[in-house]
Amino acid sequence: MAQDVEVAAEPREEQATGAVRLDAVRQVYAGRGRRRGRDAEVVALDGVSLTVAPGEVVAVVGPSGSGKTTLLELVCGLQRPVAGTVEADPAVLMPQRDLLLPWLSAIDNAALALRVARVDRDEARRRARPLFDRFGLHGFERARPHELSGGMRQRVAFLRTLLAGKPVLCLDEPFGALDALTRREMQDWLQDALAQERRTVLLVTHDVEEAALLADRVVVLSARPGRVVAVLPQPGARPRASTDPAVVALGARALDALRR
Amino acid sequence: MSARVAHRLGPLAVVLVLLGAWELYARSGRVDPFVLPAPSAVASALWHDRGLLASNLAVTAEEVGLGILVALAAGFGLAVALHFSSLLRRGVYPLLVASQAVPIVIVAPLLVVWFGFGMLPKLAIIALVCFFPIVVTTLDALRAVDPDQRKLLATLDARRWQTFRWAEAPAALPAALSGAKIAVAVAVIGAVFAEYAGSSEGLGHLMLQSIPQLETARSYAAVVVLAVFAVLLFALLALAERALVPWVADRTQGARRP
């Protein structure tokens, strides 16, 4: 599956370009009880510094409420930090839920970014089709989202993210809603897909094993307010298997850092 | 099998029982036939006055059809405008709600003064009566679009109107059609009001005329024709719904199958 050499022929992805730099970022939300005054505000991130090199895959793990999603939205420019700086090349978000549009076929969903960029429908489909063949969706181009399995929907959502043509991908718990078996399958699939389409990736997950398997570096955030408590490099080379000793060891270290 | 037959015949049986009870009551002599005609009398009026009913239906149908088109255009237009502008939403929405509290009886004469006795005041009244459910259902559905969906489109570099075109408008379409279905049902009543206010033809006019002529059965026959017409319009919209928003029907059928 991983030995699909044809793909390297696409020249534009030879050199990944996207870089991300966060410096002492702090993000605060107004709390729900506005009448109670300023005490109600919630600090989502506090003093978070983080860099992602071009082509690097960085996983961010942390407990619920540690500001992981906030981090991605800052990188994607959907939010501005109250303090600190965010410098990022154009980034596209793949949200937790696939958010496929039920009135569009799978291929039109995948090509949504192209349509938004005013590419006409036939041309958009023509560009999306090879990805369907390559990424295990051959024959499902015309299926409606409700006809697809959970794993397939995530694949289409990932293709939609790829076809946005941005150097940085922000994946927000892409497999969180899948069953354990499908999730495994999708992790291997994503590893393979990223080997073919080299991009800078910021992957948010609460699954340390997933982080250890897919990432070159694992960043561990603390519970609210989110602070970086550990940055763990992945020594193992690609492609990795979830049973590789390096992967297992990194997962254990990440879990350890989370518990502290 | 027998359950399916019962499923089909059940509603018919209910109608037959109700008609039978009505017939018995009307013939019992406890109520004047000028006040409540028997179903058999209504049926015979339907037959005898079929020419009269048909020509008046043609008038009312035209009013209702055009009136609904006006209401749809106004309703969708207003919903989109209110959706895009919070200023309008705050300023105009309460007025729209208040407008629904104004009895048509009050404004109808004014409309007649302004627009005369022709088609225009009727269209205005029908549109006034039925644009409101269209605005409310459409606007609510436009605003109910998942905020994450908007974020997603924003990271795909969609502009405001593109988010509307790709996500909000299609998402709101089923609700807009529901609003239109409610509107169809009340549009018919709107037409009767409009004809009461001043007209020389149409089913509402026929009803109004038949009562002082002691032709109560004829006015009931006009009501039956009007009701059947409303049901047909409703069914037409349901068909349009299947064609316009196939993903809704697909999903519910898919859910039922397993």
Structure write-up:
The complex is a heterodimer of chains A (260) and B (258). Chain A has 260 residues and is of the alpha/beta class. Chain A folds into 2 domains: 17-90 and 167-260, P-loop containing nucleotide triphosphate hydrolases (Rossmann fold, 3-Layer(aba) Sandwich), CATH 3.40.50.300; 100-165. Chain A is built from 8 helices and 9 strands. A 6-stranded mixed beta sheet of chain A has the order 5-6-7-3-8-9, sandwiched between helices. A 3-stranded antiparallel beta sheet of chain A has the order 2-1-4. In chain A, helix 7 packs across helix 8 (245-259). The longest helix of chain A has 17 residues, at 180-196. The radius of gyration of chain A is 19 Å and the shape is globular. Chain B has helices at 2-27, 39-48, 50-84, 86-99, 104-115, 119-143, 147-155, 160-197, 203-210, 216-244, 246-256. The longest helix of chain B is centred in the C-terminal third of the chain and has 38 residues, at 160-197.
Précis, in short:
The complex is a heterodimer of chains A (260) and B (258). Chain A is of the alpha/beta class and 260 residues long.
Summarize the topology:
The complex is a heterodimer of chains A (260) and B (258).
Chain A: E1 20-29, E2 42-52, E3 57-61, H1 68-75, E4 83-88, E5 91-94, H2 106-110, H3 112-116, H4 121-134, H5 150-163, E6 168-172, H6 180-196, E7 200-205, H7 208-214, E8 217-221, E9 228-233, H8 245-259
Parallel strand pairs in A: 3-7, 3-8, 5-6, 6-7
Antiparallel strand pairs in A: 1-2, 1-4, 8-9
Chain B: H1 2-27, H2 39-48, H3 50-84, H4 86-99, H5 104-115, H6 119-143, H7 147-155, H8 160-197, H9 203-210, H10 216-244, H11 246-256
Helix pairs in contact in B: 2-10, 3-4, 3-6, 3-8, 3-9, 5-6, 5-8, 6-8, 7-8, 8-9, 8-10, 9-10
